[in-house]
Amino acid sequence: MKKIKKYKLPIGILCVVIAILILLQSCSSEHWWFGYTYETDGYTNKSATIVKINYPSEKVVIPSTIFFHKVNALGGYVTGYNLWGAERKGMFEDNDIVKEIVVSEGIEYIFNRCFDHCISLESIQLPSTIKQFSFTNCESLKNVNFNGDVKEIESLSFSGCSSLETLVIPDNIADRGIAYGAFSGCTSLKSINIPDNITAIQRYTFSNCISLKQLVLSKNIKSIEWGAFENCTLLEKIIIYDKAEDIADNAFEGCDKLTIYGIKGSYAEQYANEHNIPFEELNNIVD
């Protein structure tokens, strides 16, 4: 019986093939590697932004490195061009497959629209290195795990996340770290903490959070801005401490069941009286 000869690819040819792959990667503005499309930093060429997942599955673990580049951000891919430049679609925008995502350590930015309307996403784990993120209109999102230092929840970050029921915000968030409309339209939100670092509830932060019944604000809250709790129709109890000094006239518009709890003689009591909102004095104040 004849022996079948086994042919081995010479090392020289293999090296040439690898060199060609590297050359092709370096000559293109977009690169492909193991199911992802990414772009490199045009200045140092050391970091990468993943812009597209080519073969999404129900669980996705975003890598921290890709083809010898450190992954710094998640973004969107080019779909066309107009007079103002490239048109992009978010990496997971309108995706209906992915349910769980783990973002690896080292990734710092999740750009706007990256997850916009990722309608099946239920759970996401963020790294301690994250600085910017947005999950607008992720209507199935229920679990968000902050794994460390989050300084800011940017404007509209969770807007329209209608399945989100509870969220624990890290204690080291910046004093104005919950931005405009961050939780607007979170219609299932029932429980959320406001860390003591926070000094302002910004415009429309909790507007249309129709399941929110009670909330204890930070002891250091100084201002509650325009429409902050607009149309929170089930809101019955909010505790406002005595550092509050400015509350917008329509901060609680549509909150017909609301009673404000606070310190006797405080600005919160004055505001409640001026706006015909029931006020109850806090019996015990915990320092």
Could you walk me through the main structural features you see in this protein, from its secondary elements to its overall organization?
- The chain is mainly β and 287 residues long.
- It folds into two domains: 32-134 and 141-148, Leucine-rich repeat, LRR (right-handed beta-alpha superhelix) (Alpha-Beta Horseshoe), CATH 3.80.10; 150-287, Alpha-Beta Horseshoe (Leucine-rich repeat, LRR (right-handed beta-alpha superhelix)), CATH 3.80.10.
- Helices cover 9% and strands 27% of the residues.
- The strands form six sheets. Strands 1, 2, 3, 5, 6 and 10 form a six-stranded mixed sheet that branches. A four-stranded parallel sheet has the order 4-9-11-12, with no helix packed on it.
- A hairpin with a 2-residue loop joins β7 and β8 (85-90).
- The protein is elongated.
- Residues 17-28 have low confidence and may be disordered.
- This is Leucine-rich repeat domain-containing protein.
- It holds the Pfam family LRR_5.
- InterPro entries: LRR_5, LRR_dom_sf, Surface_bspA-like.
- It comes from Ruminococcus bromii.
Rounded to the nearest angstrom, the radius of gyration is: 25 Å
What name does the CATH topology of the largest domain carry? Answer: Leucine-rich repeat, LRR (right-handed beta-alpha superhelix)
The CATH architecture assignment of the largest domain turns out to be: Alpha-Beta Horseshoe
**What coarse outline follows from CA principal-axis ratios?**
elongated
The ordered H/E elements are: HEEEEEEEEEEEEEEEEEEEEHE
Quick check: average pLDDT?
89
Look at the structure and name the CATH superfamily of the largest domain. Ribonuclease Inhibitor
* Amino- and carboxy-terminal Cα gap: 90 Å
**How many beta-strand runs?**
21
What is the domain total for the residues?
Answer: 2
Structural class: mainly beta
Beta-strand share of residues: 25-35%
- How would you sum up the major sheet? 6 strands, mixed
CATH hierarchy class name of the largest domain? Alpha Beta
Q: Spans of 5+ residues with little confidence (pLDDT < 50)? A: 17-28
Helix percentage? under 10%
**Alpha plus pi helix count:** 2
